[in-house]
Amino acid sequence: MKRITVFCGSSTGNNPNFGLQAQLLGKNLANRNIELVYGGAKVGLMGILAQSVLAHGGKAIGVIPKLLKAKELVLEGLTDLIVVENMHQRKAKMNDLCDGVIALPGGFGTLDELFEMLTWAQLGLHQKPIGLLNIDGFYDSLVALLQTMVAMDILKEQNKQMLLISNNIDELLEKMEAYIPIATPKWIESGK
Ligand code: AMP
Questions:
Q1: How far is CA 134 from CA 25, 40, 117, in A?
Q2: Does residue 104 have its Cβ closer than 6 Å to ligand 1?
Q3: Gap between the terminal Cα atoms of the chain
Q4: Whether domain 3-177 has CATH 3.40.50.450
Q5: Contacts with 182 (C-beta within 8 Å, 6 or more apart), sequence order
Q6: 25 confidence band (pLDDT: 50, 70, 90)
Q7: pLDDT for the residue 7
């Protein structure tokens, strides 16, 4: 993996470990020579992550829609800043640029981005690894919901397994490196 897109909160949350782990991920990406692609903002976990990448000599590329740029939320000093028309273009661009994605704790924006990548993967539109860094159990209830979806035959187990989960950065990156895409995208099979 040469470039990873990270989705994460535009807030920091009230658990200091979220910011700490965002910092550690930034350092880890820089040390591994993996470029960061992210939303371009200076706020929240997004800002902490990108600042850490840059502080450790790495490269951070921001992809931001005009609307958010106008609000002066952009982090100064990014390696590159790509300004797009809207949120849809942003997600497409963030996908185009990366070899894999990671979600850290976040809110609606983060979940929207994460699930769009999962949806595209299940349709076979891309085959990139998708990682969830489950810091301090933040995503436990989401993982439980996915298990319920499988138990209720709404989600296929093999599609659930597209989401690689760990509470440890190194382990998550190793899982992503080792990821083998599922053979059959959802709609190529008949029926169900
Ligand atoms: P949220 O998880 O709702 O805080 O939203 C964070 C995600 O949505 C990030 O991955 C960004 O791509 C996008 N996003 C939300 N708010 C902003 C913002 N103020 N500036 C830039 N991107 C944002």
A1: 13, 22, 17
A2: no
A3: 34
A4: yes
A5: 158, 159, 161, 162
A6: very high
A7: 98
Residue 130 CB–ligand 1 contact under 6 Å: no
Establish whether residue 124 lines the binding site of ligand 1, counting it when its CB lies within 6 angstroms of any ligand atom: no
- Atom of ligand 1 minimally distant from the CA of 40: 21
Q: Is 11 in the pocket of ligand 1 (CB under 6 A)?
A: yes
* Nearest CA owner, ligand 1 atom 21: 41
Phi/psi for 6 (5° steps) reads -115, 130
Instruction: Report CA Rg, the chain.
Output: 16
Alpha-carbon 47 to chain mean position: 14
Instruction: Place 191 in a pLDDT band, splitting at 50, 70 and 90.
Output: very low
Tokens linked to 57: 């000599």
Note the pLDDT tens digit of each residue in 152-175. 999 999 999 999 999 999 999 999
Residue with tokens 């053979």: 183
Q: Evaluate: CB of 138 within 6 angstroms of ligand 1.
A: no
Residue spans of alpha helices (H) in the chain: 16-31, 44-55, 66-70, 87-97, 108-122, 140-151, 157-160, 169-178
Q: Residue 182 has what pLDDT? A: 78
SS3 108: helix
Give the span between the Cα atoms of 20 and 24, in whole angstroms: 6
pTM, full prediction = 0.94
